[in-house]
Structures are given as structure tokens and as C-alpha cells.
Specification:
The chain is mainly alpha-helical and 467 residues long. It contains 20 helices and no strands. About 1% of the residues have low confidence.
């Protein structure tokens, strides 16, 4: 069983020998973070979460944001210290051993792929609304909430094609779309503030503060502040995708820290403001079931033109989230294949420096899930993989502080023995707040992963060749 604990030297993580090109500066990385964090969470999951917590969903945002902030500080230390494409997988390999690294990598594959699917479904909610409004005659069975969500599948595959063009080109498009997205959210605040009514916040927490199922309910959903936090946790992560771009950053030790910390702080503030404006403008019960809650709020205020602008901006800008997470998934897959834990042929890059095979595979799988699965279930399952990665990264920071206290660290997590354990405990609590079937599916996914590792990765690993 010694193969489970074999570790890659931390110095090895500093090499770049896989063919990825260093073309990204800190503005690109900051935009990657903002592009990933601000998306389906604020444009779509605001309604889902409000239906679980009521006006107290603002506290849900605060709880999820606090947990992510602790994890972000840990990521910043590890990313600046070990700038490698594999993100939490790579950090685990250097500190916790190959067995844990495999589980985290396998979980990240699940996370990033399902995030792409969830955001595609969220995008489709707005796109389908515009299609209906334009009366294009597309059958309902092929739109959002239908039998097959065709717009969601189309956008997932379109983003896949964009990523195949090249990393810098994709990052530039992402930067432009992020600016459009932020302008639309600023417009939403301007349109809703005049209609703000504090009475909409009473009762503040109609479903309580803990995570629990409603009496007699058969949905399996968990209500309350923590139940909503476990879902909208999805809305906050994205900064971890920045760390997957480590081998493509021009100055990774500086740029990764700026990108991770900066994007997280900026987006947390935006989330709180948007949620408060939506809740203050319209009672949560009215927009909680809408697939396009922000546009719905504006329609309720008698502003159909503004609603169309917001929906149009979401349609144009939300693909940035799909782009960033599809980028991240392909880089994790690439790192695992380069290490031999997955077929090494998948680690090949095209002439533009893009791992084409894994990018196409990610896009196709994401499109299938997007076309067939509901948003809340996809988001919940993606959260499970993220929480596992956050826990591993926090542990990696603590282990390395003990094992190599004198190692030069470009960024050091402040109050590490408070922040890192807090991130672990917060993530564990959010995991237990997920739907029961989500936890069971996640454990089942990793059971399959363990079998794959024992039959293939354990033998084919580059570390096994070194023994």
C-alpha cells in the first residue's frame, strides 16, 4: 500500500515541461476568476437559493463566502509556491500522497465538468426566455425546462470550439465578456434600487437557519440558511480555476496571488449587493422558481426593456464561466495524464498549446449532462467535488508548514492555524448540508475512481516507474 503515500517532490512542481505556453498576465487571471465566479450563481441560483432560505439567503451568501475566503487564502499560498496546472490535485500529490491526489483529481474532473453543465443550463434559462419572447417557434421540449435542453447543449459545444483556438485568444474574449457582465449587473442595481422595500425582508428566515428537509416533503432538498449555503457555495468558487492556469502565467508567483485574492474579494461584494437589491425589489416567493430571476424581477417592476437587456447580457456573458471551468477541467485532466495516472496520450497539446483531446471530451460530456439534468442537482453535485478539493488544499498548506517550515513562500496564508482548519470544518459542514442523494452519488463516483486507480493509475504512474 506504499503506492498510496508516494509523493512528488515540491521542487518538481516548479518545472514546465508539458508544452503549455506562458501567455497570461495578472489582468487575464483576474478576469478568469471574475468570469468564473460571477455567472450562474448570481444570474440563476439567486432564485433557487431564495426559495430555500427566504430573505436570509443574504446570510447564506455570507457563510459560503466566508468558507471560500479561507480556502482562497490557502489556494493562494499553494499556487504561488507550486505553480503547476493540476491545482488541488498537484498540491495533494506533493504533500498528501498519490492516493489522496487521485481522489482529488477524480473529484475535480467531476466538479469542473458539472460546473460547465450547470452554467450551460443557467445560460439556457435566459436564452430560452429570449427565444420565447421573440416567438421563434422552437418547440418547448427543446428549451429550458423541456425534455432536452438544446440551447444548453449548443453553448457547451460552442465554448469547446472557442477554447480550441488558443489560450490567450480565449482569455481575451473572456476579458471582454466579463466587462459586459459587470456592466449588466451595475444596470440591475440602478433599475432596482428605486423600488427597494425593506418589508420584503420580513419574515427574514422563514425556513430557519440550519439545513433540514421540510416536514412531509419528498423533494430531498434541504431548506434553511445552511441548506441554501450548500447550494450557492457553487456561486463563489471559480478562483480555484485560476490556479489551473499556473503554467500559462507569465509571472505565476505574483500573478496567481493577485488573481485569486483579488477576484474573490471583488465578487463577494458584488454578490451581496445584487442579492439585496433583488430581495428588496420583489418578494422572494415571486422569483424563486424563475429560471431567469434577475430578468423576472425587472419584469415585475414593469421594466420589460431592462429585463431584456439583463437577459441579453447574461446570454452574451455567462459563457465566460463555462469557458473558465472547461479550461480548468482540461488542465487537471492534462496534469493527471502527464503524471501517468490517466492515459498519457491525453496529455498531448495542439500547435496552439491547447490540450485538444481532453478539451473536446470535457465539452461533449458537459453538453450531455446540460441537456438532460436539472440545474439544482447538477450544481449540488459539482459542489461536492469542490468541497473535497478545498479540504485537501487546506490540509496541504498545514502539512507543508509542518514538514517544510523554512520553504520560501511568495504568499503566506495569514493566521494559518485558524484559517486552514476553519476552511476544513466549514467545507465539511457544507458537505453534510448537501442533499443525501448528492453525497451518495459523490461517494459512488469516487468508488469507481478507486477501481480505475487500482487497475490503471497505480501501475502506470510515473512515480511507479521511478521506483
Amino acid at each position: 500500500m506504499s503506492f498510496l503515500t508516494r509523493r512528488k517532490p515540491i521542487e518538481a512542481e516548479m518545472r514546465t515541461d508539458g508544452g503549455l505556453k506562458r501567455t497570461l498576465g495578472w489582468p487575464h487571471l483576474m478576469a478568469l476568476g471574475v468570469g468564473a465566479i460571477i455567472g450562474t450563481g448570481i444570474y440563476t441560483l439567486t432564485g433557487v437559493a431564495a426559495g430555500l432560505a427566504g430573505p436570509a439567503v443574504i446570510l447564506s451568501f455570507a457563510v459560503a463566502g466566508a468558507v471560500c475566503a479561507g480556502a482562497a487564502l490557502c489556494y493562494a499560498e499553494m499556487a504561488s509556491l507550486s505553480p503547476q496546472a493540476g491545482s488541488a490535485y498537484a498540491y495533494s500529490y506533493s504533500t498528501l500522497g498519490e492516493g489522496i491526489a487521485w481522489v482529488i483529481g477524480w473529484s475535480l474532473i467531476l466538479e469542473y465538468t458539472l460546473v460547465c453543465s450547470a452554467v450551460s443550463v443557467g445560460w439556457s434559462g435566459y436564452a430560452s426566455g429570449l427565444i420565447r419572447q421573440a416567438a421563434w417557434g422552437v418547440p418547448e421540449i427543446f428549451l429550458n425546462k423541456g425534455v432536452v435542453d438544446l440551447p444548453a447543449m449548443v453553448i457547451a459545444l460552442a465554448v469547446t470550439g472557442m477554447l480550441l483556438v488558443g489560450t490567450r485568444e480565449s482569455a481575451t474574449v473572456n476579458f471582454i465578456l466579463v466587462c459586459i457582465k459587470l456592466a449588466a449587473l451595475a444596470a440591475f442595481v440602478a433599475f432596482t434600487l428605486p423600488s427597494f422595500d425593506a418589508a420584503h425582508f420580513h419574515p427574514f428566515a422563514p425556513f430557519g437557519y440550519g439545513a433540514h428537509e421540510l416536514a412531509g416533503g419528498a423533494t430531498g432538498k434541504k431548506f434553511g440558511v445552511m441548506g441554501a449555503a450548500a447550494i450557492i457555495f457553487f456561486a463563489f468558487y471559480g478562483f480555484d480555476a485560476i490556479s489551473t492556469a499556473a503554467e500559462e502565467a507569465k509571472n505565476p508567483k505574483r500573478d496567481l496571488t493577485i488573481g485569486i485574492i483579488g477576484s474573490m474579494a471583488f465578487c463577494t461584494l458584488i454578490y451581496m449587493v445584487i442579492a439585496a437589491c433583488a430581495l428588496g425589489a420583489v418578494p422572494f416567493g415571486l422569483f424563486s422558481k424563475s429560471p431567469e430571476p434577475l430578468a423576472f424581477v425587472l419584469k415585475q417592476l414593469g421594466k420589460p426593456g431592462a429585463a431584456a437587456i439583463i437577459a441579453g447580457a447574461a446570454v452574451v456573458a455567462m459563457p465566460t464561466v463555462i469557458m473558465v471551468f472547461m479550461f480548468g477541467q482540461s488542465r487537471v485532466f492534462f496534469a493527471m495524464a502527464r503524471d501517468g495516472l490517466l492515459p498519457r496520450a491525453l496529455a498531448g497539446v495542439n500547435r496552439r498549446g491547447v490540450p485538444a483531446a481532453v478539451t473536446i471530451l470535457t465539452g461533449v460530456v458537459a453538453a450531455v449532462f446540460a441537456g438532460l439534468a436539472p440545474l439544482d442537482e447538477i450544481a449540488s453535485l459539482a459542489n461536492a467535488g469542490t468541497l473535497a478539493a478545498f479540504i485537501a488544499t487546506a490540509f496541504a498548506v498545514m502539512v507543508l508548514r509542518r514538514r517544510a517550515p523554512d520553504l520560501a513562500r511568495p504568499f503566506r496564508t495569514p493566521a494559518v492555524w485558524l484559517i486552514a482548519p476553519g476552511a476544513v470544518l466549514g467545507c465539511l459542514y457544507l458537505f453534510t448540508s448537501l442533499q443525501t442523494k448528492t453525497m451518495l452519488f459523490f461517494l459512488g463516483w469516487n468508488a469507481v475512481g478507486v477501481v480505475v486507480y487500482l487497475l490503471y493509475g497505480r501501475v502506470k504512474s510515473r512515480m511507479a516507474e521511478a521506483v
